[in-house]
Amino acid sequence: RIVSSSCRCQDNHHATMLIKSWQTFLLYASILPSLFVLFHTAWLSVELRGGRTLDDEARTHADPSSSTAGHAAPPLRSFVDPVWSDWGSEDSQFETLVPPSEIDYSIKNRLPWEQKGHSLQKKKPAAGASGSATDDRCGDILLFMPQMFARNGHGSQLNNYLLAAMIATFTGKAMVVLEAPQEHSRYPNGSQFGCPIESFKNPEEFLNFKGNDHSELEMRRDFPKGLERLIRHPSWISRDCAIPVCDYYDYSTWEAIRRDQSEYFLSGKPPWEITCAEKHGDVRVTVLGGEEVRRFFDGQYREKMVQRSSGRARERAYDWAVRLGATDYMARVFSRMTKESDIWDYVSALIARSGLVTFQPWIVRDVRAFIEGSRLPLDQPHDAIHVRRGDKLATDAREEVVHYWHSQGYERQVDFPLNYIPFTHYLRLWETDCRKYVWDGVSEKSTVRTIYLATDDPETIRNEISKLPIGQGGTTIVGGCERVKFVFSPSAHHGSFHLSEGGVTKVDCVERYERNIHSIADLMILTKSNTFVGEFNSNWGRVVRIFRTQLNDMYVMPEGSSGWKELLGLSAGEERTPPAAARGAERQRPVLIHDIRIAFAEDKAVPPPGW
Predict the structure, then answer these.
(1) Tell me: the pLDDT tens digits for 304-350?
(2) Is residue 473 within 8 Å of residue 422, measured between CB atoms?
(3) In Å, how far from its chain's centre is CA 351?
(4) What is the DSSP string of 116-158?
(5) pTM score, two decimals?
(6) What contacts 14, CB < 8 A, 6 or more positions away?
(7) What are phi and psi of 473, to 5 degrees?
(8) DSSP H/E element including 45
(9) Helix, strand, or coil here: 348?
(10) pLDDT tens profile 403-457
(11) d(CA 468, CA 525)
């Protein structure tokens, strides 16, 4: 009995020990996953942010001196940027389509090889080859040929250039521009944008010329041609790469390769890529013209650009943003976006701040003279209205004209009072909150608002304005604002408004250049206005919208997780929005858009930038 009792006690002791061991195991088993998640999250935070929290970095990113700091929306601004005028050059006010203080001039110092996320590496020489490693920044080139869009207007050509830049930066390629030489150009002066005085070999001969056809004068062969007569292609996107020699290819050879791309986009394949043996190594070259850029963007790249469904897609978005000039923080914000419209707005804002569209010195000089000679007050806020009629009435805008008059009770088109949308419709959109534009200490009755009018139908619009009530001092009474001053372009009575009108050979190159200056001046005034009324049926309006976007310096990227997959680094999930009470609703928006009122087709989605 003693032995039996002792055995039972030992059995009970072993059972108790087993139960305790099992309980201990279950306890650790339940704690270990949580500890793993905790340490994994902490490691990711340190690894990705260099030991700084998102709020810490966001506070650094939010510069109190920024033009958007502390504002629910972009503040009122005059044409002349007051922030820049204190220490920057005066010509800089006319170099780009945005105020110079909004441009990040340090991009060229960060890109492409110094920025985190850039994947280019030093190329090592092949085995047995002599020489040291060479920089591979020019190992993959998008060769852009803009000539085929030369007959289009400014808006179309600029949009196409921006779309090519988007493809180049998304695919990690250096973008090199190949202009048509004189023998392949449709223009006797070598460019669709006309000829400034610098383009002539003998400027004095140009000044004393009395004829009507300046193509009789000798032109400088080394002067920029084509699109590059209008804008400076920045080195941060070209990487200072030269046009590939590729076994002595000439323009005709590259043109033939470009035309062969049609077989690829028609069959749904990526662009054809050739390999050239250059002095510094093999170079992959993709040749695209304007039409190919649009076709391949729509068929190959558009969907990939907005994908965020995998870690690889988010990494690709991060790298793309960096190549567009984003900082590390901006690129991480961009890589977490999932809504398509937000992604395109962020791309627009990155393009606007990059200075990608910077005009040549002669364009800057003559645009400045033109704008300073207008009646537009450059040191005061102004609004702008773009009224495009002309050829658009019979094509893109016809559907909207019909829709407008149907909304006014006219059923049959033969009964329409006018074949266009009246100017009063634009004014009704503009006057929605016109009483908000009253500055402290100034009575509402003494406030005069300036509206700049860019139109290809100035005489008809002048007639429409003449039917409105007249205010004091030659002003016009519009809606709730008692005094409005309308300012037309000084060229409004000169006839054609758009560069593409008038044909290729019918217009003298000097006259074409003057028209070019007038159009760029109008475009610059529209983009720098406070309230813009227009539409996105035209390339012109879509370009204006791109350069009215601005990154929100007060935006703080939300922290937190939307589930265990995100904590484990397996899924980005949707962004969690912090409470509006903690941060203003506008601070939650990564992109701010200067006030835009859409004249018609407001129910249609805004297309991607460059489209």
Answers:
(1) 999 999 999 999 999 999 999 999 999 999 999 999 999 999 999 99
(2) no
(3) 4
(4) TT----EEPPPTT--S--EEGGGSEEEEEEGGGGTTS-HHHHH
(5) 0.82
(6) none
(7) 65, 30
(8) helix 2-49
(9) helix
(10) 999 999 999 999 999 999 999 999 999 986 555 544 444 444 557 899 999 998 9
(11) 25
